[in-house]
Amino acid sequence: MHVYLREEPVDLQMKEVEAEGLVAPDSGLIPMAFFSRLNETPSFRAFLPPETVNILHQVITGPVRLGLMAEEPEVYFITDHYLNYEWVLVNLATVTPEALEAMIARAHQLAGKVKKKPGT
Questions:
Q1: Strand partners, 90
Q2: Which is more confident, 93 or 19?
Q3: Partners of 80 in the beta sheet?
Q4: Predicted pLDDT at 22
Q5: 99, exposed or middle or buried, with CB in 10 Å at 0-12, 13-18, 19+?
Q6: Which of the 8 DSSP states describes residue 43?
Q7: Hey, how many other C-beta atoms are within 10 angstroms of the C-beta on 48?
Q8: What is the distance between the alpha carbons of residues 108 and 79, in angstroms, rounded to a whole number?
Q9: Domain boundaries in the chain?
Q10: Backbone phi, then psi, for 29, in 5-degree steps?
Q11: Count of CB atoms within 10 A of residue 60's CB?
Q12: 113 versus 68: which is more confidently predicted?
């Protein structure tokens, strides 16, 4: 494996992929693919135990979410339902209009970078 050190953070996403023919069904391992956010081709793949998948999910998504909630707990929060998602919830009654506008602009920017499948 090659490791590249960068000054800016890499926006990494992990997804479970089809395991058929790759790993024994009773192995307990989960086939995962790791992508940079805007790339359809995985950067790498791995067969991981469920505990490792849970830890990696928290490491990949946790720092930003935890930072937001620690910095402005009256604005950013999470419920049990969303613990396994990358999202943080926003209290619309306490978020500033400027912050909300920035979030919407960022979401629009990211949505525009998603590659569309042919014919859609």
A1: 76
A2: 93
A3: none
A4: 78
A5: middle
A6: S
A7: 18
A8: 24
A9: 12-113
A10: -90, 145
A11: 16
A12: 68
Which distant-in-sequence residues (6+ apart) come within 8 Å of 14 by Cβ?
32, 33, 34, 35, 53, 56, 57, 60
Q: What is the DSSP letter of 88?
A: -
Distances (CA, A) of 101 to 37, 66, 74, 92: 22, 21, 18, 12
Compute φ and ψ for 4, nearest 5 degrees: -110, 130
Distances (CA, A) of 93 to 97, 115, 119: 10, 34, 40
The stretches of the chain forming alpha helices (DSSP H) are 50-71, 97-113
Distance (Å) of CA 9 to CA 5, 34, 39, 44, 57: 9, 15, 15, 17, 16
Q: Which residue has the tokens 């505990």?
A: 51
**Closest CA relative to residue 103, chosen from 74, 75, 80:** 75
Q: Are 18 and 38 in contact (CB under 8 A)?
A: no
How far is residue 101's CA from residue 28's CA, in Å, rounded to a whole number? 44
SS3 36: strand
Per this entry, what is the length of the chain?
Answer: 120
pTM of the model: 0.45
